[in-house]
Amino acid sequence: MNFMDEIVALCKRRGFIYPGSDIYGGLANTWDYGPYGVQLKKNILDDWWKTFIEDRDDMMGLDSGILMNPKVWEASGHLGNFSDPLMDCKSCKNRVRADHLIEKSTGKLADGMSNEELFEAIIKENIKCPYCGKSEWTKPRDFQMMFKTYQGVLEDTASEIYLRPETAQGIFVNFKNILDSTRARIPFGVGQYGKSFRNEITPGNFIFRTREFEQLEIEYFVHPDEVDEKFDEWIESFKIWFHSLGVSASKLRLRWHSKEELSHYSSKTVDFEYEYPFGWGELMGIAHRGDYDLSRHMQFSSVKMQYKDPVTNEAYIPHTVEPALGLTRTLLIVLLEAYEQEDLGDGSSRTVLHLPAKLAPIQVAVFPLQKKLNDKGAKELYGQLKSHFRAEYDDSGAIGKRYRRQDEIGTPFCITFDFDSIEDESVTVRCRDTMEQERVKVEDLIAYLNKSLS
Ligand code: GAP
Asked: End-to-end distance of the chain based on CA atoms, in angstroms?
């Protein structure tokens, strides 16, 4: 089994992530988050929210709708620009992305090439269909990546709407509402998390690229003269945050977008890339969106998007620095970093997730040595711990097996309540990472765990 397959298998076995619609044979590239997966995802989200919104005086949150007026997507440029160049193999009828095919076949970047140029390159290089080996291509055509649906009972063009492809636009269209209803002063930012949808042509690599995913996005509004300084500050803030999630520096790198590669709204973008088992790929992007979005919404809605500085009286359209991140993609790297198949040196091995304590779905597991200890203090202890930590009680099977199960879900500490615990009011605390065990007085346990989990 390769590394990624091991992660996928663990996720299903231990209730992190299941294939979507599993009992019906699945729906390609859809995934459901099980009890431990949804908790892990929430813990990452909460940490992002606390770090970048709650703990900062210059940030606030928003929760805007997935369904928006279609004019939003006209103004944002998504209706015109958010498409992939696709072409069909006339022989086997498979559809492929022209630029990706060129990049795979020649190793050269094809970003920014027109459909005409892509077609010329494919003919010149005699690039063959990866499915049937023939080279009988239709010309590339643009394929809109936004999911379309209908609002109301009529399925006509007047009732067409889209599922949002990014959470960002909800922030831009609420910019004026936020200015009018809060004490926001530039520079300030608005953060939003939530589902986004893209009809990706090449989803895959587990939860790396899916058609339904979750984003954590920030739009940081600044005076045009301040953009570069704030842009660099956001890079540093995210480096620190990724480190706190257990991501090793050697697996992260920054990659600046070339001019040809920049999105339609961006004048400068840097990606944080991660070294996945399938190679380096994007984890997040930080983009300088300039005044593109606010200006376009001002133009399309006729609502003024200007900010008037209360001290200098200068009126201007703020520029935006956008740190945009996938929550589900972040969860993938957290799992990849935490996973270890550890050789125990005695011919046996264990699977363990070394999750940071702040992210672990369960922080403390409580085991009575035998079921008959449930009512002799073990359950009571569990009740006390549960009000302080994410805790789980497990009284079935051999203790060794219970440890292995908690190792696989990344629980930092297991506590065993045994027959001596009734007399000496102490329990055995076992550490996930070192596997060392220590006897701790029950009265000291909460302080001990608080210290060890921080
Ligand atoms: N508002 C800007 C924006 O949406 P993006 O680079 O297209 O920029 C931001 O998306 C982040 O969202 C990406 O860096 C990635 O982490 C995540 N993301 C984008 N498409 C995704 C997909 N199909 N599946 C999972 N995550 C995705």
From this structure: 35
